[in-house]
Write a structure and sequence with these properties.
The protein is an alpha/beta fold. It has two domains: 75 residues, Nucleotidyltransferase, domain 5 (2-Layer Sandwich); 119 residues, 2-Layer Sandwich (Nucleotidyltransferase, domain 5), CATH 3.30.420.40. Helices cover 33% and strands 24% of the residues. The chain has a seven-stranded mixed sheet with strand order 6-7-10-9-8-11-12, with helices on both faces. A five-stranded mixed sheet has the order 3-2-1-4-5, covered by helices on one side. Helix 2 packs across helix 6. The protein is globular, with a radius of gyration of 20 Å.
């Protein structure tokens, strides 16, 4: 038997962690499968409180774009609780099936890379991956598995926060679905934000189609993925967390 009764024949028990700008999401693989998330501002000792009741994993794999004190806190907690050193994953030049064409691989956010890796596993058609979080990233992979790059713009909450900071007497968060044309200021702002986001996606897909000679499949992920998918008229699929899916693929390749 290995760690905490985990047999050698059992699927590896690995804690996969996606640290975003506002939330931390995690998945425990293996026979004790579990998932969860929580806001960063309620972490205890750098980790979600629910981790205290998790069975001991064999490894901890983390996607975190920014370098900050949270890494040190997580390292300290995992060492004290499980005697494990978390592995902080980085974007690479290549994984089986996907080639990274970014001009400087070290500048590519690992969350974008992992989402592309996961999207490629879903099929070999060219794909546009729309990750909808604090920021919205739109990335493109072609039929040959080449990650070609993408674009980044503010997400819904970043747009709303900008309005609150610049014009604090206006509330950009509409309480209803705004209609065109809007007849009150809150709805008008909400409609403008939605229209800007959807128009950006449409332009990205149009430009991708011209570049590739075919229209890519559209895959949404992230906290606002389902919401933004609902605003688009294009055919698209929604995936709860392609970043964790990508981490799990790397875990399987390393096993």
């Amino acid at each position: 038997m290995s760690q905490e009764g985990q047999s050698q024949s059992a699927p590896p028990r690995v804690l996969l962690v996606d640290v975003g700008n506002s939330r931390i999401k995690w998945r425990l693989t293996g026979e004790a499968y579990a998932e969860g998330f929580c806001p960063l501002n309620v972490l205890v000792g750098g980790v979600p409180l629910s981790w205290k009741s998790l069975p001991m994993p064999r490894w901890v794999m983390v996607s975190q774009v920014s370098e900050n004190s949270l890494r040190d806190d997580m390292r300290r907690w995992c060492a004290e609780k499980w005697s494990i050193e978390p592995r902080f994953v980085e974007a690479t030049q290549k994984v089986p099936g996907v080639e990274n064409r970014y001009s400087n691989v070290r500048q590519l956010g690992v969350d974008r890379w992992l989402a592309i890796v996961a999207a490629r596993r879903l099929g070999e058609d060219p794909a546009a991956v729309i990750d909808c979080g604090t920021a919205i990233t739109m990335d493109l992979v072609n039929r040959d598995g080449d990650f070609l790059g993408g674009m980044i713009l503010p997400g819904r909450r970043m747009f709303e926060s900008s309005f609150r900071q610049r014009v604090p007497y206006l509330d950009p968060a509409s309480k209803t679905d705004p209609v065109f044309p809007s007849t009150n200021t809150a709805d008008a702002i909400a409609l403008g934000i939605r229209t800007a986001l959807v128009a950006s996606i449409d332009r990205f897909v149009e430009n991708a189609g011209k570049l590739l000679g075919e229209t890519p499949v559209l895959r949404f992920t992230g906290g606002d993925g389902r919401w933004l998918r609902g605003l688009c008229t294009r055919d698209a699929s929604v995936h709860q967390n392609l970043v964790l899916d990508g981490l799990q693929i790397l875990m399987e390749l390393d096993s």
